[in-house]
Amino acid sequence: MNRIIADSQGQDRCVVEVNGTRLGVEVFGDGGGSAPPVLLVGAPTMLSWPEALCERLVAGGRRVVRYDLRDSGESATVDSAAPAYTLRTLAADAAALAGAFGGGRVHLAGVGVGGMVAQVAAVEHPGAFSALTLVGTRPVAPGPVDGDLPDHHGPTMARLFARPLPDWTDRAAVAEFAAGGAEIRGDDPAAARSTAARIWDRTPAGAAAPVHLANQLGTVFARLDCAPRWRERLPGLALPVLVVHGRRDRFFPLGNGEALAREVPGARLLVLDGAATALPASAAPEVAAAMLALDRP
Predict the structure, then answer these.
(1) pTM
(2) How many C-beta neighbours within 10 Å does residue 265 have?
(3) How far apart are the C-alpha atoms of 111 and 193, rounded to whole Å?
(4) How far is CA 171 from the centre of its chain?
(5) 190-239 pLDDT tens trace
(6) What are phi and psi of 101, to 5 degrees?
(7) Helix or strand or coil: residue 108?
(8) Looking at the DSSP assignment, which residues form a beta bridge with residue 208?
(9) Which end of the chain, N or C, is surrounded by fewer C-beta atoms within 10 Å?
(10) What DSSP character marks residue 24?
(11) Are 2 and 16 in contact (CB under 8 A)?
(12) What are the CA-CA distances from residue 28 to residues 39, 146, 225, 238 (Å)?
């Protein structure tokens, strides 16, 4: 059953039951026009989507729904060390949420690993979505990449993994760890520090260190079964697609976004010259305008 089961912390936040699990959801605006709602897939938590973008989309007449993936944020936590579901389960969750909030097809958007969920959702549940936006992602699962795709920037990854891990139950230490990682990746350290603290605050009280780690770094996703491949099915998508990518992205270098845009007939590629891995709030006007144009009624 797919239904809203409880309000929490205000009328714009709720828990939604889909496919036998509970997902933390936040809603912006009422979508008074005829345009389809926008569903934002977290990476893994909803806070990977800046409020500035959500507000711009609402100003454009959209109802915006952002949510936490399973085992992250305010969504149900089962076992972050050994998740008993697959990438396709997460894609099915997105389709179910589209039905719960849309009443029709919705505009689906995914960032980072959420962009992988969004791709699979679009190819496996085409009737649920009116448009697709993919931000800072690539057309293959975590792990070895195809020969035409640039892998993570080696020196950057070496610096990231050389750092000692923080005490994941220490809010301040986690926030500083996130800020340091952002500086290495070329993102805004202050924004990363703030977001990490907010993610920590939204993690269930008393959660163990592995749960905090999963929320901050998306480690659950790397353990999921992502087979079979979906890249070869992307050319069959029959909906408008926008690919957004930071020119300075060192985690998924720009060639990944360029290849992704080539896979889908008619896809538009928007390159953010000043952006790296994270979607900065400063890019909200440009990204929102491109998203609104994608399915303008």
Answers:
(1) 0.95
(2) 11
(3) 19
(4) 23
(5) 999 999 999 999 998 889 999 999 999 998 888 899 999 999 999 999 99
(6) -110, -20
(7) strand
(8) none
(9) C
(10) E
(11) yes
(12) 11, 38, 32, 28
